[in-house]
Amino acid sequence: MQLYYSATSPFARKVRVLINELKIQDQFDLLQIDPWTDSDLRQINPLCKVPTLVLNHKEVLFDSALICEYLSTLKEKNCVYPTERVSYFKSLRLQALADGAMAAVGRLYAELQKPEQLQAQAMMQRFAASQHSTLVWLEQHLDNFTEHFGIGEIAVACLLEYIDFRFPDSDWKSQHSQLATWLKMVAERESMQRTRFHVVP
Fold first, then answer.
1. Helices 121-140, 151-166: inter-axial angle, 10-degree rounding
2. Residue 125's pLDDT band (boundaries 50, 70, 90)?
3. For the chain: N or C, fewer Cβ within 10 A?
């Protein structure tokens, strides 16, 4: 299988972390690209986004949540998705929240790269508010995190390190100390260490 990814995408990182957690790295060719400039990507994914997964029978999957769900079927007895119904949907809720916040953080960063006179202040305030309220919710609901590093926890870890990556001067850790402590613990996992965000020269 081929996985198209960017080293700066939190959604692609979520998929790569999951691949490492499931220990199925040998089943993939990882193709690092820039989705903004790669002319071939749109030929297989009309959204021209990463991650994009090309299966061995040439079917193509888009969207990180869908790709992660598929990956979870490749290995038996994994704990990435809870089997109990309530826990399963709580885990998906955690992933959905983190994914939504990732998008907000990314759009806020992109907006800040524009000349000040072109920045949409109302949208930036909305994106910043989404980031803040998500961190508050996560701090208040740490008891919803499982003892396993499941799909919800993976998404949250990728979100938190994405905030650090895009906004290294952010003081969110001092404001949400329990969440910061949790991140420090899971950031030591091999799957997180092997998939660190970085800018490609």
1. 130
2. very high
3. C
* Residue linked to tokens 């949790």: 182
- Phi first, then psi, for residue 2 (nearest 5°) are -120, 130
Using one digit for the tens of pLDDT, what is the confidence trace for 59-117? 999 999 999 999 999 987 678 999 999 999 999 999 999 999 999 999 999 999 999 99
Q: Which two tokens stand for residue 142?
A: 């740490």
DSSP category for residue 149: -
67: nearest Cα among 49, 79, 82: 49
Alpha carbons 127 and 13: distance in angstroms, whole number:
21
- Segment 158-168, tens digit of pLDDT: 999 999 999 99
Q: Is 114 helix (H, G, I), strand (E, B) or coil?
A: coil
Token pair for 186:
């899971």
- Give the DSSP letter of residue 85: H
d(CA 43, CA 174): 45
- Beginning with the edge strand found earlier in the chain, give each strand of the sheet holding 2-5 in spatial order: 29-32, 2-5, 52-54, 60-62
Per-residue tokens: 23: 């220990």
Contact between 153 and 146 under an 8 Å Cβ cutoff? The reply is: yes
Cα 170 from Cα 143, distance rounded (Å): 25
The residue count for the chain: 201
Q: What phi and psi values does residue 61 have, to the nearest 5 degrees?
A: -115, 135
Which residue type does 72 have? S
Structure tokens at 40: 């071939």
